[in-house]
Amino acid sequence: MKWIVNPSFAFFNSDKTGYIFNIPNNKITECTVEFIEFIRDLHKIEFTYEDFCLKIGCEKEEGKKVFKKLCDESVLISYKYKIDKFQNTMFNVKFIELASFLTMGYKEKIVFLGFPYDQSVTNRAGCKFASKGLREISRIIYDREYSLLSYNEDISDISDFIYDIGDIKGIIFDRNGPEFSFLTNIIFSLVCTSNFPIVLGGDHSISFSTINGASLKGEIGVIHIDAHDDYFEFNLNNWSHEMHHGNYLGGFANNDAVKKIYCIGIRSLTPYLISNDKVKIYPRKSIFETFQLDKNLKYYITFDVDVIDPLLIGGVGTPVPFGFSLDQIRELLIRLIQEFEIVGMDVVEFIPDKKEEILTICSLIFECVVQQIRRNQND
């Protein structure tokens, strides 16, 4: 009988610790770095029990115990199926299963992930379709089969640095359901391996999970780019009932791993935000005059599209007038990635009902991708 490493499991490591990510059960367990290296040698090949014993370097009886344990835990399974390929990817780049991506040990890659969820919106819904809409239009910006934009000539082939791991589940979710903790684990696994996740939302409640995942690796700051502050403290023990897209930032008020929260572009402010010392407000009018962030921190960016003036981008659930121009938001995103160490980002609250607007948001995302690749190459 032939065996393979379970393609639904991911194996990754930081400098000193290995991790086994049981993706179907959303469970991460620690192991040794040596075990991860051993599993990587077996990844994506078929092997017999005898091959396994030879590879592990022990007698058959001892190897049998290890082999049985890995089979009992479903780390090793009999080879009997293939993985379907996800057809439509962001900027037409490579699709790869999350488990394969992590186990193959990629580092410093841009990784797209869709989270099509909008069950916590309070006004207009539809941002659950953003990941699909953005992927469909994004190949106009860059198609690896045909062209490369001239202003990116310093990057030989941008598709070498970008992967798309598809969407989490489908477009129907439970309100604040188990997919949220799954998203947290995925972001942790990508940040832990020095990759740069870009999550395509989804309403802003998904950032509760993305920021939690990024903060599991170590202390971070949050850059919240939004027309609204989305801040109201709630009971974390009851977050699945109380957290929504208008209060998710309140979940980090007492999170010691989130040291600073910078709110940029706010035009609709609640008084509850001002009472917390870790929060700093940069309203739209002062963004290019007094912009100062702690350079000793790494940052996660959460980009709510409604920060842009609704006359320019109307596909949002809760528009607020007098927002950023397209040049201003482009300059802001470029400057943040150039000047600060960003560990990942999400793009939320976008309703993809006009092709021109989808193309604009794709272009802004592409700018972020190019800047992050350049930063990786220069570090």
Automatic annotation (TrEMBL):
<keyword id="KW-0378">Hydrolase</keyword>
<protein>
    <submittedName>
        <fullName>Agmatinase</fullName>
        <ecNumber>3.5.3.11</ecNumber>
    </submittedName>
</protein>
<dbReference type="GO" id="GO:0046872">
    <property type="term" value="F:metal ion binding"/>
</dbReference>
<dbReference type="InterPro" id="IPR006035">
    <property type="entry name" value="Ureohydrolase"/>
</dbReference>
<dbReference type="GO" id="GO:0008783">
    <property type="term" value="F:agmatinase activity"/>
</dbReference>
<comment type="similarity">
    <text>Belongs to the arginase family.</text>
</comment>
<keyword id="KW-0479">Metal-binding</keyword>
<dbReference type="InterPro" id="IPR023696">
    <property type="entry name" value="Ureohydrolase_dom_sf"/>
</dbReference>
<dbReference type="GO" id="GO:0033389">
    <property type="term" value="P:putrescine biosynthetic process from arginine, via agmatine"/>
</dbReference>
<dbReference type="Pfam" id="PF00491">
    <property type="entry name" value="Arginase"/>
</dbReference>
